[in-house]
Amino acid sequence: MSYNTALRSYTAKRVEEIDTADILIGIPCYNNESTIMHVVKMVTHGLHRHYHAMRSVIFIADGGSTDDTREIAKEFEIKPWQEKIISIYRGAAGKGTALRSVFEAAERLSVKACAVVDSDLRSITPDWIKYLLEPVIEREFQFVAPVYVRHKYDGTITNNIVYNLTRALYGKRVRQPIGGDFAISRDVAKYYAEQDVWDSDVARYGIDIWMTVNAITQGFRICQSNLGVKIHDAKDPGEHLGPMFRQVVWTMFSLMERYEGLWREIRGSEPVDIFGFEGSLEPEPVKANLEGMVHLFKTGYQQFSSLWKDIFSEDSFQAIRKTAEMGVVDFHLSTDQWVRILYELAATFHAWSVNRYKLIELVTPLYYARVASFVRQTWEMSSGEAEELVEEQATMFEEQKDYLVEQWDRKSSGA
After folding, report:
1. Which pLDDT tens digit goes with each residue over 212-266?
2. Which of 12, 96, 139, 186 is the 20 to 30 A CA-CA neighbour of 153?
3. Residue 2: inside a domain
4. What pTM was estimated for this model as a whole?
5. DSSP of 128-165, one letter per residue?
6. What is the structure's pLDDT at 205?
7. What is the spatial distance between Cα 273 and Cα 163, in angstroms, rounded to a whole number?
8. Are residues 242 and 311 in the same domain?
9. Contact at 8 Å (CB) between 222 and 141?
Protein backbone atom coordinates (compact mmCIF):
# COMPACT_ATOMS: atom_id res chain seq x y z
CA MET A 1 0.00 0.00 0.00
CA SER A 2 1.36 3.44 -0.84
CA TYR A 3 0.97 6.46 1.43
CA ASN A 4 1.19 10.12 0.55
CA THR A 5 2.81 10.77 3.93
CA ALA A 6 4.92 8.73 6.37
CA LEU A 7 3.51 10.68 9.33
CA ARG A 8 0.61 9.17 11.26
CA SER A 9 -2.16 11.58 12.20
CA TYR A 10 -1.11 11.80 15.86
CA THR A 11 2.47 12.62 14.78
CA ALA A 12 1.30 15.24 12.30
CA LYS A 13 -0.83 16.78 15.06
CA ARG A 14 2.14 16.86 17.43
CA VAL A 15 4.27 18.54 14.74
CA GLU A 16 1.49 21.07 14.23
CA GLU A 17 1.40 21.82 17.97
CA ILE A 18 5.16 22.46 18.05
CA ASP A 19 4.63 24.65 14.96
CA THR A 20 8.23 25.73 14.22
CA ALA A 21 11.74 24.73 15.27
CA ASP A 22 15.32 25.60 14.40
CA ILE A 23 16.76 22.08 14.61
CA LEU A 24 15.38 18.57 14.15
CA ILE A 25 17.38 15.49 15.08
CA GLY A 26 15.97 12.28 13.63
CA ILE A 27 16.72 8.85 15.13
CA PRO A 28 15.40 5.98 12.97
CA CYS A 29 15.14 2.84 15.09
CA TYR A 30 13.92 -0.72 15.19
CA ASN A 31 14.48 -3.03 18.19
CA ASN A 32 17.31 -0.94 19.67
CA GLU A 33 16.37 -1.11 23.36
CA SER A 34 20.01 -1.63 24.44
CA THR A 35 21.36 1.52 22.74
CA ILE A 36 18.46 3.98 22.30
CA MET A 37 18.79 5.59 25.74
CA HIS A 38 22.48 6.35 25.19
CA VAL A 39 21.82 7.87 21.76
CA VAL A 40 18.93 10.07 23.00
CA LYS A 41 21.01 11.13 26.01
CA MET A 42 23.97 12.22 23.83
CA VAL A 43 21.61 14.07 21.45
CA THR A 44 19.85 16.01 24.22
CA HIS A 45 23.19 16.88 25.89
CA GLY A 46 24.67 17.94 22.55
CA LEU A 47 21.74 20.20 21.72
CA HIS A 48 21.85 21.71 25.22
CA ARG A 49 25.62 22.26 25.13
CA HIS A 50 25.92 23.72 21.63
CA TYR A 51 22.47 25.01 20.62
CA HIS A 52 20.62 25.80 23.85
CA ALA A 53 19.39 29.12 22.42
CA MET A 54 17.69 27.34 19.51
CA ARG A 55 14.39 25.49 19.51
CA SER A 56 15.12 21.79 19.05
CA VAL A 57 13.04 18.69 18.38
CA ILE A 58 14.22 15.09 18.83
CA PHE A 59 12.23 12.85 16.49
CA ILE A 60 12.35 9.10 17.13
CA ALA A 61 11.07 7.33 14.01
CA ASP A 62 10.36 3.75 15.02
CA GLY A 63 9.63 0.86 12.68
CA GLY A 64 7.24 -0.92 15.02
CA SER A 65 9.80 -2.33 17.48
CA THR A 66 8.70 -5.42 19.35
CA ASP A 67 11.10 -4.77 22.23
CA ASP A 68 11.06 -1.76 24.62
CA THR A 69 12.77 0.76 22.32
CA ARG A 70 9.85 3.21 22.27
CA GLU A 71 9.11 2.88 26.00
CA ILE A 72 12.75 3.59 26.92
CA ALA A 73 12.86 6.58 24.55
CA LYS A 74 9.57 7.87 25.98
CA GLU A 75 10.68 7.64 29.61
CA PHE A 76 14.08 9.26 29.15
CA GLU A 77 13.91 12.91 30.22
CA ILE A 78 15.37 15.39 27.79
CA LYS A 79 16.59 18.90 28.64
CA PRO A 80 14.08 21.73 29.18
CA TRP A 81 13.13 23.71 26.05
CA GLN A 82 13.58 20.68 23.86
CA GLU A 83 10.70 18.74 22.34
CA LYS A 84 10.51 14.99 21.77
CA ILE A 85 8.32 13.12 19.29
CA ILE A 86 8.09 9.32 19.26
CA SER A 87 6.35 7.98 16.22
CA ILE A 88 5.78 4.67 14.47
CA TYR A 89 6.17 5.67 10.85
CA ARG A 90 3.63 4.72 8.20
CA GLY A 91 4.55 2.99 4.95
CA ALA A 92 6.88 0.24 3.71
CA ALA A 93 9.12 -1.32 6.36
CA GLY A 94 12.69 -0.08 6.38
CA LYS A 95 14.96 2.82 7.13
CA GLY A 96 13.81 4.71 4.02
CA THR A 97 10.32 5.27 5.37
CA ALA A 98 11.72 6.30 8.76
CA LEU A 99 13.80 8.96 7.02
CA ARG A 100 10.86 10.07 4.93
CA SER A 101 8.95 10.82 8.13
CA VAL A 102 11.93 12.80 9.49
CA PHE A 103 12.22 14.84 6.28
CA GLU A 104 8.49 15.60 6.26
CA ALA A 105 8.65 16.77 9.88
CA ALA A 106 11.71 18.95 9.12
CA GLU A 107 9.86 20.60 6.25
CA ARG A 108 6.66 21.18 8.25
CA LEU A 109 8.60 22.66 11.18
CA SER A 110 10.59 24.96 8.84
CA VAL A 111 13.87 23.99 10.51
CA LYS A 112 17.23 25.57 9.68
CA ALA A 113 18.98 22.21 9.89
CA CYS A 114 18.14 18.54 10.28
CA ALA A 115 20.54 15.81 11.40
CA VAL A 116 20.03 12.06 11.57
CA VAL A 117 21.97 9.62 13.75
CA ASP A 118 21.81 5.84 13.88
CA SER A 119 20.14 4.22 16.88
CA ASP A 120 22.79 1.52 17.45
CA LEU A 121 25.69 3.91 18.10
CA ARG A 122 27.84 3.33 21.16
CA SER A 123 30.45 5.98 20.29
CA ILE A 124 28.19 9.00 19.77
CA THR A 125 29.14 12.01 21.94
CA PRO A 126 27.38 15.37 22.48
CA ASP A 127 29.94 16.92 20.11
CA TRP A 128 28.62 14.84 17.19
CA ILE A 129 25.59 17.16 17.17
CA LYS A 130 27.83 20.19 16.66
CA TYR A 131 30.03 18.43 14.09
CA LEU A 132 26.97 17.53 11.99
CA LEU A 133 24.94 20.74 12.33
CA GLU A 134 27.62 23.44 12.27
CA PRO A 135 28.40 23.23 8.52
CA VAL A 136 24.68 23.71 7.75
CA ILE A 137 23.89 26.39 10.34
CA GLU A 138 27.09 28.43 10.13
CA ARG A 139 28.63 27.64 6.73
CA GLU A 140 25.51 27.21 4.57
CA PHE A 141 26.30 23.70 3.39
CA GLN A 142 23.23 21.68 2.39
CA PHE A 143 24.41 18.09 2.83
CA VAL A 144 26.94 16.88 5.41
CA ALA A 145 28.26 13.35 5.03
CA PRO A 146 30.11 11.69 7.91
CA VAL A 147 33.76 10.69 8.12
CA TYR A 148 34.68 8.16 10.77
CA VAL A 149 37.79 6.58 12.17
CA ARG A 150 36.90 2.95 11.48
CA HIS A 151 38.70 -0.32 11.87
CA LYS A 152 40.09 -1.66 8.60
CA TYR A 153 37.51 -4.50 8.56
CA ASP A 154 34.51 -2.33 9.43
CA GLY A 155 32.78 -0.99 6.32
CA THR A 156 34.04 -3.51 3.76
CA ILE A 157 31.20 -2.70 1.35
CA THR A 158 32.10 0.99 1.51
CA ASN A 159 35.84 0.35 1.20
CA ASN A 160 35.66 -2.10 -1.70
CA ILE A 161 32.62 -0.91 -3.64
CA VAL A 162 30.61 2.14 -2.62
CA TYR A 163 33.35 4.71 -2.03
CA ASN A 164 35.14 3.68 -5.22
CA LEU A 165 32.07 3.72 -7.44
CA THR A 166 30.64 6.97 -6.03
CA ARG A 167 33.97 8.72 -6.48
CA ALA A 168 34.68 7.36 -9.98
CA LEU A 169 31.13 7.89 -11.25
CA TYR A 170 30.25 11.29 -9.82
CA GLY A 171 33.67 12.88 -9.25
CA LYS A 172 33.39 13.70 -5.53
CA ARG A 173 35.48 12.04 -2.82
CA VAL A 174 32.74 11.36 -0.29
CA ARG A 175 34.46 8.83 1.96
CA GLN A 176 31.35 7.39 3.66
CA PRO A 177 28.50 7.57 1.11
CA ILE A 178 26.36 5.15 3.18
CA GLY A 179 27.39 6.44 6.61
CA GLY A 180 24.01 6.62 8.38
CA ASP A 181 24.79 9.80 10.34
CA PHE A 182 24.37 13.01 8.32
CA ALA A 183 22.90 16.51 8.28
CA ILE A 184 20.90 18.43 5.69
CA SER A 185 19.33 21.83 5.21
CA ARG A 186 15.57 22.30 5.08
CA ASP A 187 15.52 22.65 1.26
CA VAL A 188 17.26 19.27 0.89
CA ALA A 189 14.78 17.70 3.34
CA LYS A 190 11.98 19.11 1.19
CA TYR A 191 13.62 17.83 -2.02
CA TYR A 192 14.06 14.31 -0.58
CA ALA A 193 10.52 14.16 0.82
CA GLU A 194 9.03 15.10 -2.57
CA GLN A 195 10.82 12.44 -4.64
CA ASP A 196 8.83 9.51 -6.03
CA VAL A 197 11.17 6.95 -4.49
CA TRP A 198 9.38 6.09 -1.24
CA ASP A 199 7.34 3.12 -2.42
CA SER A 200 10.29 1.59 -4.26
CA ASP A 201 12.98 -0.92 -3.30
CA VAL A 202 15.52 1.93 -3.31
CA ALA A 203 13.83 3.45 -0.26
CA ARG A 204 13.71 0.10 1.49
CA TYR A 205 17.22 -1.07 0.75
CA GLY A 206 19.53 1.68 -0.38
CA ILE A 207 18.34 4.97 1.02
CA ASP A 208 21.77 6.14 2.26
CA ILE A 209 23.47 5.88 -1.13
CA TRP A 210 20.38 7.34 -2.83
CA MET A 211 20.63 10.46 -0.64
CA THR A 212 24.35 10.92 -1.28
CA VAL A 213 24.08 10.45 -5.05
CA ASN A 214 21.13 12.85 -5.23
CA ALA A 215 22.95 15.47 -3.14
CA ILE A 216 25.85 15.32 -5.64
CA THR A 217 23.84 15.14 -8.86
CA GLN A 218 21.42 17.91 -7.87
CA GLY A 219 24.31 20.27 -7.21
CA PHE A 220 23.68 20.80 -3.49
CA ARG A 221 26.61 22.22 -1.53
CA ILE A 222 28.17 19.18 0.12
CA CYS A 223 30.87 18.68 2.73
CA GLN A 224 31.98 16.06 5.24
CA SER A 225 32.31 16.15 9.00
CA ASN A 226 34.73 14.00 10.95
CA LEU A 227 32.88 12.41 13.88
CA GLY A 228 35.86 10.51 15.30
CA VAL A 229 35.55 6.81 16.04
CA LYS A 230 32.41 4.95 15.02
CA ILE A 231 31.53 2.10 17.35
CA HIS A 232 28.26 0.39 16.56
CA ASP A 233 26.94 -3.13 16.17
CA ALA A 234 29.57 -3.96 13.55
CA LYS A 235 28.97 -6.99 11.37
CA ASP A 236 31.42 -9.71 10.40
CA PRO A 237 31.79 -9.25 6.63
CA GLY A 238 31.65 -13.00 6.05
CA GLU A 239 28.47 -13.61 8.01
CA HIS A 240 26.09 -10.69 7.74
CA LEU A 241 26.87 -8.58 4.73
CA GLY A 242 25.57 -10.65 1.80
CA PRO A 243 22.08 -9.08 1.91
CA MET A 244 23.55 -5.60 2.34
CA PHE A 245 25.87 -6.15 -0.63
CA ARG A 246 22.92 -7.09 -2.82
CA GLN A 247 20.78 -4.17 -1.69
CA VAL A 248 23.47 -1.48 -2.00
CA VAL A 249 24.83 -2.71 -5.34
CA TRP A 250 21.33 -3.03 -6.77
CA THR A 251 20.60 0.59 -5.75
CA MET A 252 23.92 1.92 -7.07
CA PHE A 253 23.43 0.25 -10.43
CA SER A 254 19.83 1.50 -10.64
CA LEU A 255 21.06 5.06 -9.98
CA MET A 256 23.68 4.64 -12.70
CA GLU A 257 20.88 4.20 -15.20
CA ARG A 258 19.08 7.29 -13.98
CA TYR A 259 22.17 9.53 -14.05
CA GLU A 260 24.00 8.02 -17.03
CA GLY A 261 24.04 11.35 -18.87
CA LEU A 262 25.96 12.87 -15.99
CA TRP A 263 28.52 10.24 -14.99
CA ARG A 264 29.60 9.27 -18.51
CA GLU A 265 31.26 12.66 -18.94
CA ILE A 266 33.08 12.79 -15.59
CA ARG A 267 36.75 11.82 -15.30
CA GLY A 268 38.82 12.06 -12.15
CA SER A 269 37.54 13.40 -8.83
CA GLU A 270 37.87 16.30 -6.45
CA PRO A 271 38.18 16.36 -2.67
CA VAL A 272 35.23 17.42 -0.52
CA ASP A 273 35.77 19.79 2.45
CA ILE A 274 36.08 18.11 5.85
CA PHE A 275 35.20 19.77 9.17
CA GLY A 276 34.57 18.40 12.66
CA PHE A 277 36.75 16.34 14.97
CA GLU A 278 40.51 16.91 14.90
CA GLY A 279 42.77 14.38 16.51
CA SER A 280 43.62 10.72 16.30
CA LEU A 281 41.85 7.78 17.91
CA GLU A 282 42.20 4.03 17.59
CA PRO A 283 39.02 2.17 16.58
CA GLU A 284 37.79 -1.04 18.19
CA PRO A 285 38.95 -4.13 16.28
CA VAL A 286 36.41 -5.87 14.06
CA LYS A 287 36.81 -9.60 13.51
CA ALA A 288 36.96 -10.95 9.98
CA ASN A 289 36.62 -14.67 9.29
CA LEU A 290 39.06 -15.11 6.40
CA GLU A 291 38.59 -18.89 6.08
CA GLY A 292 34.81 -18.47 6.14
CA MET A 293 34.84 -15.93 3.30
CA VAL A 294 37.19 -18.03 1.15
CA HIS A 295 34.89 -21.03 1.73
CA LEU A 296 31.79 -18.99 0.73
CA PHE A 297 33.53 -17.87 -2.46
CA LYS A 298 34.66 -21.38 -3.41
CA THR A 299 31.19 -22.80 -2.76
CA GLY A 300 29.77 -20.03 -4.97
CA TYR A 301 32.30 -20.84 -7.68
CA GLN A 302 31.20 -24.48 -7.72
CA GLN A 303 27.54 -23.45 -8.00
CA PHE A 304 27.70 -20.50 -10.37
CA SER A 305 30.93 -20.63 -12.40
CA SER A 306 29.14 -21.66 -15.61
CA LEU A 307 26.89 -18.59 -15.28
CA TRP A 308 29.84 -16.33 -14.40
CA LYS A 309 31.53 -17.50 -17.60
CA ASP A 310 28.61 -16.01 -19.56
CA ILE A 311 28.48 -12.78 -17.55
CA PHE A 312 32.16 -11.81 -17.45
CA SER A 313 34.85 -11.34 -20.06
CA GLU A 314 37.28 -14.20 -20.72
CA ASP A 315 40.04 -12.29 -18.92
CA SER A 316 37.93 -11.68 -15.81
CA PHE A 317 36.61 -15.23 -15.69
CA GLN A 318 40.12 -16.68 -15.88
CA ALA A 319 41.18 -14.45 -12.98
CA ILE A 320 38.18 -15.71 -10.97
CA ARG A 321 39.01 -19.32 -11.86
CA LYS A 322 42.65 -18.91 -10.74
CA THR A 323 41.52 -17.34 -7.47
CA ALA A 324 39.20 -20.31 -6.83
CA GLU A 325 42.24 -22.63 -7.01
CA MET A 326 44.16 -20.72 -4.31
CA GLY A 327 44.41 -21.68 -0.65
CA VAL A 328 43.73 -19.29 2.24
CA VAL A 329 47.44 -18.47 2.70
CA ASP A 330 48.02 -17.23 -0.86
CA PHE A 331 44.43 -16.15 -1.61
CA HIS A 332 44.33 -13.09 -3.87
CA LEU A 333 41.98 -11.38 -6.32
CA SER A 334 43.84 -8.33 -7.62
CA THR A 335 42.42 -4.83 -7.29
CA ASP A 336 42.84 -4.29 -11.02
CA GLN A 337 40.76 -7.37 -11.75
CA TRP A 338 38.17 -6.40 -9.12
CA VAL A 339 37.64 -3.02 -10.84
CA ARG A 340 36.97 -4.76 -14.15
CA ILE A 341 34.66 -7.34 -12.59
CA LEU A 342 32.56 -4.63 -10.95
CA TYR A 343 32.42 -2.53 -14.14
CA GLU A 344 31.45 -5.56 -16.24
CA LEU A 345 28.76 -6.39 -13.70
CA ALA A 346 27.32 -2.85 -13.88
CA ALA A 347 27.18 -3.10 -17.67
CA THR A 348 25.50 -6.53 -17.51
CA PHE A 349 22.93 -5.20 -15.03
CA HIS A 350 22.18 -2.38 -17.46
CA ALA A 351 21.73 -4.79 -20.38
CA TRP A 352 19.48 -7.20 -18.44
CA SER A 353 15.87 -6.13 -18.21
CA VAL A 354 14.60 -9.04 -16.10
CA ASN A 355 15.74 -10.81 -12.97
CA ARG A 356 18.29 -8.17 -12.09
CA TYR A 357 18.15 -8.87 -8.38
CA LYS A 358 18.96 -12.50 -9.17
CA LEU A 359 22.03 -11.34 -11.10
CA ILE A 360 23.35 -9.50 -8.04
CA GLU A 361 22.60 -12.54 -5.89
CA LEU A 362 24.59 -14.81 -8.20
CA VAL A 363 27.73 -12.70 -7.89
CA THR A 364 27.67 -12.21 -4.09
CA PRO A 365 30.43 -14.87 -3.67
CA LEU A 366 32.76 -12.62 -5.70
CA TYR A 367 32.32 -9.91 -3.07
CA TYR A 368 33.49 -12.42 -0.45
CA ALA A 369 36.53 -13.16 -2.63
CA ARG A 370 37.40 -9.48 -2.84
CA VAL A 371 36.99 -8.88 0.90
CA ALA A 372 39.01 -12.02 1.74
CA SER A 373 41.74 -10.72 -0.56
CA PHE A 374 41.66 -7.29 1.11
CA VAL A 375 41.77 -8.88 4.58
CA ARG A 376 44.77 -11.03 3.66
CA GLN A 377 46.56 -8.09 2.06
CA THR A 378 46.06 -5.86 5.12
CA TRP A 379 46.52 -8.51 7.83
CA GLU A 380 49.73 -6.93 9.16
CA MET A 381 48.68 -3.33 8.46
CA SER A 382 47.32 -0.71 10.84
CA SER A 383 43.93 0.78 9.96
CA GLY A 384 45.78 3.89 8.75
CA GLU A 385 47.95 1.86 6.36
CA ALA A 386 44.89 -0.04 5.12
CA GLU A 387 43.25 3.32 4.42
CA GLU A 388 46.08 4.17 1.99
CA LEU A 389 45.31 0.95 0.16
CA VAL A 390 41.63 1.96 -0.10
CA GLU A 391 42.72 5.29 -1.64
CA GLU A 392 44.94 3.50 -4.18
CA GLN A 393 42.00 1.28 -5.10
CA ALA A 394 39.70 4.29 -5.60
CA THR A 395 42.25 5.84 -7.97
CA MET A 396 42.28 2.63 -10.03
CA PHE A 397 38.49 2.83 -10.37
CA GLU A 398 38.89 6.36 -11.77
CA GLU A 399 41.68 5.35 -14.15
CA GLN A 400 39.57 2.55 -15.65
CA LYS A 401 36.42 4.62 -16.16
CA ASP A 402 36.77 4.36 -19.95
CA TYR A 403 36.55 0.57 -19.57
CA LEU A 404 33.20 0.98 -17.82
CA VAL A 405 31.80 3.15 -20.63
CA GLU A 406 33.11 0.73 -23.26
CA GLN A 407 31.53 -2.30 -21.52
CA TRP A 408 28.29 -0.39 -20.88
CA ASP A 409 27.93 0.46 -24.59
CA ARG A 410 29.02 -2.97 -25.82
CA LYS A 411 26.58 -4.87 -23.60
CA SER A 412 23.76 -2.40 -24.33
CA SER A 413 24.10 -3.06 -28.04
CA GLY A 414 23.96 -6.82 -27.44
CA ALA A 415 27.54 -7.36 -28.67
Report:
1. 999 999 999 999 999 998 887 655 556 667 888 998 999 999 999 999 999 999 9
2. 96
3. no
4. 0.95
5. HHHHHHHHHHHH--SEEEEEEE--TTS-HHIIIIIHHH
6. 76
7. 16
8. no
9. yes
